[in-house]
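Render this sequence as a predicted structure.
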Amino acid sequence: MSRLLAMLYGAACYAVFLVVFLYAIAFVAGIGVPKHVDSGAAAAWPLALAIDLVLLGLFAVQHSGMARPAFKRWWTRFVPAPIERSTFVLLSSLVLALLFWQWRPLPLRIWSFDGDLARGTLYAVSAAGWLLVLSSTFLINHFDLFGLRQVWRYAKQRGPAPDAPFVTRAFYRIVRHPLMLGFLIAFWSAPTMSLGHLLFALMTTGYILIAVKFLEERDLIAQYGDTYRAYQHRVPMFLPWRRPRIADRRSEPVATGKYS
């Protein structure tokens, strides 16, 4: 395919992702957008619950399914390798956009903080979670993660990038998955928690735990072997209760080259 067209396609996919990512922040927080987790067309709660579960399940299947190495090997028989990652980013963004559009609110209030200080604090913690998500992508390789590096190398006729070495920087020395931890912080730091928001937080938390434990880490072990097993032993998955010894930290490789 045209190298210029591939680069433009990758940039367009990234732009779609960026818009959806910014909308996701407002969707979860329930502010600044016309349609968020607690707004939209009302429906009987069994129907609303069923629709929301289908939407969350659709994202989980698409996102984890397309990220698996076996699927990528099959997928690149039809989609040029330089735009494979960009296409994954585009489809993930579109499925998320569908979720935001078709989400049905479940307005029953679980908890609510009325004081300005409490609400402001929780909004700040949520913002910190989103910032952790974004900054963690740069600690690995933001432009590779979202397909820009691949289309750029193709446009410059440099060929596929070599496999990234296993490295850990900053947050990745404290927990193995700071990016996912950022999502968990953002989803649960809600000044007002409705039943719909609780459903969203519970289901995405369950998906993150299952996908990381049984899919992503399995792929990382297959790619990096004993190096990643040693990293698992030294560094906790999400919560930094167990800190590595100083000697371990010095000998640690200098974020992983594998992404879901």
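Summary. The chain has eleven helices and two strands. The radius of gyration is 20 Å.
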